[in-house]
Amino acid sequence: MFGKQGARMAGASLLLVVAGLCVWAARADKPGQHAQQRDKLTKAFRDGNYKVAYDGLRKLALDPSNDPKEVGKDLDLAIDSLQRLGRIDESDDFREAVIAAHARNWRLLQSAALSFNRTERYGYIVAGKFYRGHKRGGVATSAPGSATASAPCN
Fold first, then answer.
1. pTM of the prediction?
2. What does the pLDDT look like over 22-34, one tens digit per residue?
């Protein structure tokens, strides 16, 4: 009916359809995979495995294909993990990286803004960079732009 050229076109079309279905199926599994991973990491946090929880949540929160409705919760739990690990000074860089990965997600931006209220407002400055939390030595100060920023003590 179509000849050899028509058969080739039909075969190529069928191959493209099958490839498209494979790609679609692979993408459809990812949200379920993220949900399973999120549940596992939440359990690790509850069990006191804060480092495991943070490492996994960091990857999950920085993944641009993460569920837009859930990424804010991932950010919050990861920052809670950092606080419990005594690594709160890393929270600002992490928060900024997540915001850069999901800059058009208003839910994440709201969660990121609210997370400032749950973290320490004081810290120290080294080489012109502000770090949250306590460290030995240095000059204690409040967050840059804060109304309670203090002058260096002599």
1. 0.69
2. 555 555 445 678 9
